[in-house]
Design goal:
Layout (H helix, E strand, L loop, with lengths): L7 H15 L2 H16 L2 H6 E7 L2 E6 L2 H21 L2
Antiparallel strand pairs: 1-2
Length: about 90
């Protein structure tokens, strides 16, 4: 019997290399939104908000306070249009 040991760093490198091939479509979409979030919203909104997930085609965004949640609610149509334009 053979026993093979691999360093944790080696395992992370292997998993990191294959992970993109197994990401769900929603996770890939979230990653793309995270990359351009500051371009989609203005700097102050970006500083107080963070996309966290996409589930069933719904973008979930964490906010620093109810004020920022309300800001995103008001900006929702414009934000969705920008997302569609940049990430068609």
């Amino acid at each position: 019997d053979w026993v093979c040991f691999m360093s944790f760093e080696g395992l992370q490198a292997i998993l990191g290399a294959i992970e993109p091939h197994y990401q769900s479509q929603e996770r890939q979409q979230l990653q793309r939104i995270l990359e351009v979030w500051s371009d989609l919203v203005n700097e102050s909104v970006s500083a107080h908000t963070q996309p966290t997930a996409i589930q069933r085609n719904i973008l979930e965004v964490a906010t620093a306070s109810p004020v920022w949640t309300q800001t995103l609610v008001f900006e929702r149509p414009k934000l969705l249009k920008k997302i569609r334009e940049q990430l068609s």
